[in-house]
Amino acid sequence: MANMTAPEAVKPKPVATERPPAKLFDLARDKLRDLNLFLHTRAALEGAPHIHVNNPDGAHSVACGLNANLDVHIHGHVGYYAAGMNQLASVTIHGNAGPGVAENMMSGRVHVKGFASTAAGASAHGGLLVIDGDASLRCGISLKGADIVVGGSVGSFSAFMAQAGRIVICGNAEDALGDSLYEAVIYVRGEVRSLGADARFEPMNETDVAAVSMLLDRAGLTHSPKEFRRVASAKSLYHWHADADQEY
Amino acid sequence: MTTLALEESAGFDRHTIEYIQRAAASGLYEIRGLGAKRRVPGFDDLLFLAASLSRYPLEGYRERCSTKTVLGTRYASRPIELAIPITIAGMSFGALSARVKEALGRAATELGTSTTTGDGGMTSEERNSSKTLVYQCLPSRYGFNPDDVRRADAIEIVIGQGAKPGGGGMLLGQKVNPRVARMRTLPEGVDQRSASRHPDWTGPDDLVIKIKELREITDWQKPIYVKVGATRVFNDVKLAVHAGADVIVVDGMQGGTAATQTVFIEHVGIPTLAALRQAVDALDDLNMRGVVQLVISGGIRSGADVAKALAMGADAVAIGQGVLVALGCNSDTYVSKDRHISAVEDYAKLGTAPGFCHHCHTGRCPVGVTTQDPELELRLDPMVGAKRLKNYLKTVNMELTTIARACGKQVVHHLEKEDLVALTVEAAAMAGIPLAGTSWIPGRTAL
Fold it and tell me: Which of B28, B200, B220 sits opposite A119 (nearest CB)?
């Protein structure tokens, strides 16, 4: 995978604690259960929309299942399923994310300042996932309507069976990009080692350029949209037939 | 005596010849609905030893026999409490119409049991009609969303299905109508393929973490079920226990499907009887009986089947195909405005007849059960369906308690494997139950 410029916050910086009314959790001391319960039940009620989490230390399921207009900053690296099933909230991970970051997100925004492991944004229905660094295998697998912007490159089988939504890849893609795509669209700026079954390059039209421009802008990236190529489904697998005996 | 000129080959019988010639003509494998048609060792191969001098029976018409069943007691703060140990198996909206899902919910609620979603998400009809609804988390994640996770009563992570362990689902385009397409985020009318692996985890170590994520999202309130198709059941059940499941559902090879390759249905997986024995052995091996509950499914039809499953160690059963048959599947008529109307011609159009149909995949169900067609689905009135299903489940439950009383049990969960004998050597070996009239369990005790 092509190495991109090292993202901003791979080295986590604990946030200063003297910023009321922001609420601070320190996972070196506080339990994950207490953090998530607070985020699910009390954060919005108590008018504490700004939450900082220090010392996640690779914990799994940090800030998953949120359903309120919260602004959560996680200062450090997280394990699996950070911001999983997110709704409405903005979650920023000032570090790297383990597998399944923002999996099944419905709305809101998740921003990984570092790198993301496998299955980033898997089956996400809505919202925006931004990964400043690279994303590993199966980024955007089974995508169902969300937008993903990857500042770096993506691993193999990214966008596998992606049904709806957009993935912008500013770097390269490994093997089998967009295998068995449905209606999702991929925009890739770098090289693609191989396309998956039923995926094909298509010309960029004005709508595509505008979409890439908008998504790059929302992700804080400045590439020219015209540097991107469009990958979409050839739709040859939409109906079961004998000539695709290895594809079903 | 058959003359040599008309002698049928055992290896290349008419069925095999038809299969080869159809394959040669089409280049496609056959896809169909429902479950395995081949004969495999099953609950019919077991018998009960009721009370006599050495056991004391309960009086069948006067003494109570409890059927209360609690699932999900291991970690969930809100376990599932059911009035009967007979639940409705996961079946998708898409495979079934919304009216059928409503009928399932109504009947289950009236009898105090649970129903289960399927691939394709949760419909308002089934949520509103079901007091207790189990929400499946499948590899496809079609329609899976946190709002429905929160309004479910339990979550069932589906690893596999008895009819097709290791395979993904199929919903052919004729059943992908606008509502199904919208719920699954798919173009209308496409042949929908479901993944066979979950998108965000890949093995038992990951499953531990996935279960914990779902517990965090639901604030540790809802039981987490893990459903496996019956293959290497002993190991799979152990792994599911280690992964943190509250309830394990094991689906044997007789389990049904809306649409799967026939070669899968008939040739992959092991019979429910063998699967149940292995599952119970795994829980015993881990000393987890009673801590992790076991639900068995795959071809359960009658109160006798349920009683035998419970006696072998299951905590509850799940029924799919039996439920559909109760609604009218394979009936020669459907009910409209209190009148029975013949559906035989519509079966004939599919090339089949009542009693033989497995054409769920076509979406042209003659009795309106497995269809999304706006006219055909009207053939199943949810109120009529709910009444029929309620009758069926009540009957099954009465049969269960009748047998339990005869075995001297005040609680159906007190049925035990010592109450059973096997009719055949195969069933004795698979079920770990002695052959009738002997103390011999092939593979376990000396002859």
Answer: B200
Contact A99 B200 (CB under 8 A): yes
Q: Chain B contacts of A79, Cβ < 8 Å?
A: 209
Q: Which residues sit opposite A71 in a β-bridge?
A: A50, A90
Which residue in this structure is represented by tokens 């020669």?
Answer: B332
Region of B414 please: left (phi>0), alpha (psi -120 to 50) or beta. alpha
Sheet holding B132-137, edge to edge: B86-88, B316-319, B293-297, B247-251, B224-229, B154-158, B132-137, B114-116
- Neighbouring C-beta atoms of residue A15, cutoff 10 Å: 17
β partners of residue B337: none
Interchain CB distance below 8 Å, A103 and B193: no
Q: Does B146 touch chain A (CB under 8 A)?
A: yes
DSSP secondary structure letter of residue A75: E
Read off the pLDDT of residues B225-271 as tens digits, 9 standing for 90 and up. 999 999 999 999 999 999 999 999 999 999 999 888 899 999 999 99
In chain B, what are the domains?
Answer: 43-327+386-431 (3.20.20.70)
- Angle B376-B378-B379 from CA coordinates, rounded to 5°: 75
Per residue in B356-407, pLDDT tens?
999 999 989 999 999 989 999 999 999 999 999 999 999 999 999 999 999 9
| Residue A102 structure tokens | 């923002």
The values of phi and psi at residue A185, to 5°, are -125, 140
Q: Could you tell me if A127 and A103 are in contact, meaning their C-beta atoms sit under 8 angstroms apart?
A: no
The residues that bridge with A75 in the sheet, in sequence order, are A54
Q: Which pLDDT value is given to residue A2?
A: 42
ipTM of the complex: 0.91
Question: Is A25 in contact with A46 (CB distance < 8 Å)?
Answer: no
- Specify whether the backbone of B326 is left (phi greater than 0), alpha (psi in -120 to 50) or beta: alpha
Q: How far is the CA of B306 from the CAs of A132, A188, B315, in angstroms?
A: 55, 56, 10
Contact A173, A136 (CB under 8 A): no
Which SS3 state, helix, strand or coil, does residue B110 take? helix
Q: Does B173 touch chain A (CB under 8 A)?
A: yes
Distance between CA B101 and CA B120 in Å, rounded? 12
Where do the structural domains in chain A lie, given as residue ranges?
1-99, 137-235
pLDDT of residue A22: 80
Q: Are A36 and A6 in contact (CB under 8 A)?
A: no
Lowest mean pLDDT among A56-60, A122-126, B5-9, B317-321: B5-9
Contact status of B187 with chain A (Cβ, < 8 Å): yes
